[in-house]
Amino acid sequence: MEPIAHTFTGMALAAAGLRRATPLAGTALFMGANAPDVDVFSGFVAYYESVAFRRGWTHGVLALALWPFVLTGVLLLWDRYVRLKRKPDAAPARAGPLLAVTAVAVASHPALDWLNNYGLRWLMPFSGRWFYGDALFIVDPWVWLVLGGVAFLTFSQSKLARVRWAVFFALSSWLILANTELVPAASVVLWFAGAGALVAARWRLRDATPVTLERAAQAGIAVAAVYMVAMVGASAAARAEVRAAAAAQGIVPEDVMVAPVPADPFSGQVIVMTRDEYYTGTFNWLNEPRLRLDGERTSRPRGIAFELASRDAAARRFLVWSRYPVIDLEPDRGAIRVTFTDARYPQGQLEGPKVYLPASAVESGGN
Q1: Is the pLDDT of residue 349 over 70?
Q2: Distance CA 271, CA 116 (A)
Q3: 3-state DSSP percent of the chain in helix, strand and coil, to 5
Q4: Residue 367 pLDDT > 70, yes or no?
Q5: Average pLDDT over the chain, rounded to whole?
Q6: Which of 21, 77, 137, 310 has the most CB atoms lying inside 10 A of its own CB?
Q7: What is the CA radius of gyration of the chain?
Q8: What are the residues facing 342 on neighbouring strands?
Q9: For residue 57, with 0-12 CB atoms within 10 Å meaning exposed, 13-18 middle and 19 or more buried, which class applies?
């Protein structure tokens, strides 16, 4: 998921009572919920290095074991040499509780990332295999509304905080309205109804006790968890139905994806991969038939042009990440331009690497 969802997760956990575990617990939850995304800086190293490196080392089992100790150590050093020197009478942070809440926050990050169709490599560095939940779109407004909502109820006591929250909800609402071609009308209405309900709840709970706010946050986390589990189950059921429907049409799937789409939990983007081709289409629980395959098919990449182009460094990095690679061959000033994309992203949504091969090399079979 994107950084807002991870940040709201850390804030919701803090609002649910974990911030009382020890001084600096709230900071630990925020840092832990976002720490694995330090790999975003790999994008500055080399062309397409980011897609090859991201959601790997910093998100895998070894990192999950190490991050809590690293972050706890950093926070304890900050506590001793900065915070307590500024406030000598403050209670010191406790290592055990700090480690525990940090571990919870760190674990939440790859769990959320697994939910979308971008995927992550749970087993790094021991295995580079990708895992995909195919359950939530990478930007999920309902996660923002529920987890961000309970964070809003707790962390909006000051006038400045309320201004910040107002800016966030205004910008996120604009994002919803600016994409009405992708977001169903019912989802737009539900978003504004939910945002209005949060404002009303904030007014009603303006004098609420900390215990009441913690219970509200715990309920919000429970609702978010139920939603995520339900979406994982719905995705698995949809894949099974797509396999059966494809087989009934004489298609033999090797792999099936039913990926989430923006703000619509009932619909999905479908890819059926066979030995030679990709079939694309849509799935909707409310339609009949639920599966609708497009008429066009895309060939899986093979041949000498793919083999030669795959040796390029940018192409190798791209293929580390690509789930359903596609290539397009075009003549270009005496060469063959090989453009890499991924079938998960409709044409124009993803700019993959371009590799130029001598036409003579392709025509001669690479000899």
Answers
A1: yes
A2: 15
A3: 55, 15, 30
A4: no
A5: 93
A6: 137
A7: 24
A8: 325
A9: middle
